[in-house]
């Protein structure tokens, strides 16, 4: 699978002429028309799936009942197929808007919240210091009640690297407390949040700012592209590599195309400072980046995605840490749905996308409690839920991944990054990843419903 080779000597400025050619001889299609076409294609795929599944519905209905059969099949085939078809067709229309600003120079702040990050903070700051951005970069490191030497190492590293750095302490535990403490002293129009274990490519800040200043005035945030940094480590990091490279990236590209990226992730994103302050700062939730993004969208602001603004982050290396992270993500989505209702979103695509999130618990419930047992039964020749017919969805999933891989390959070429192969991880990602993710997500939903103790690590 694609693993970037991080070598500063390989990074060269992409050819401006080659990039501009992407916008030549391509007819402009309005966003509303793209959205309409994507829905039509997805609806036709849904009708085709329903037609092909008549025998499946009949046979399962004889074992259960017709309503239960439709409840199961809609959750494992109809709705997921519609969503995947929408994504495939939408991605075919994806084209980044042309840039109006090539070399921005406005000041920008970089906020890095830390808790016991003495081993990684210097490396993170080194990559900030290597940025090619021509404007002033002000770095604010927030030591969030660390028990180690994070504060001292950050201050020393910042001084040695020649950064315009300010290291502050925030004694109240919680990332939102750390970010809000820094937000009080930010004096730049735009700010970037960056995780302490995440490193930037040397043009990353420039790409984020350039996209923001080239966008309409109602764009208040730009999500960067986050990929795996430790993808060679073991089985868990190898499959996550594909998830970040294809799964998460495909969703963000699609959402960004419709100006409604649902999560400007806290690990690496650009925000308009005044907008953050006007909507109540970072909230006390486990998914603060989800809630803050949805609040922006609820106010009519738009959020973009910049695929060239790449950062590499440390992903969980053990199952227990992976499970905790992804259940937090699922729990964060429920927190956002409780606070910001999909039907209150003013933008059509955002209303549709957040509504899809509203039915995710149902899809994960059916997948976990019906599809996975159905697969087990299929090994014994019992094809009530899973059978040869269900393999029909694989070509659509492979097509989706192929389209995204093609886009991502272009991005890596522009950044002079080399994509290494990871066939082992890809096979497990395509065949087993959802089987791992759905039960974990279901547990995350239950954690929020029963208000279980929050676990970050």
UniProtKB/TrEMBL annotation:
SUPFAM superfamilies: Nucleotide-diphospho-sugar transferases (SSF53448)
Source organism phylogeny: Bacteria, Bacillati, Bacillota, Bacilli, Bacillales
Family: Belongs to the glycosyltransferase 2 family.
Transmembrane segments: 35-53, 65-93, 349-370, 382-405, 426-446
Cross-referenced CDD domains: CESA_like
Pfam families noted in UniProt: Glyco_tranf_2_3 (PF13641)
Chain coiled-coil ranges: none
Domain of life, per lineage: Bacteria
Designated name of the protein: Glycosyltransferase family 2 protein
Keyword terms, alphabetized: Glycosyltransferase, Membrane, Transferase, Transmembrane, Transmembrane helix
Record GO terms (molecular function): glycosyltransferase activity
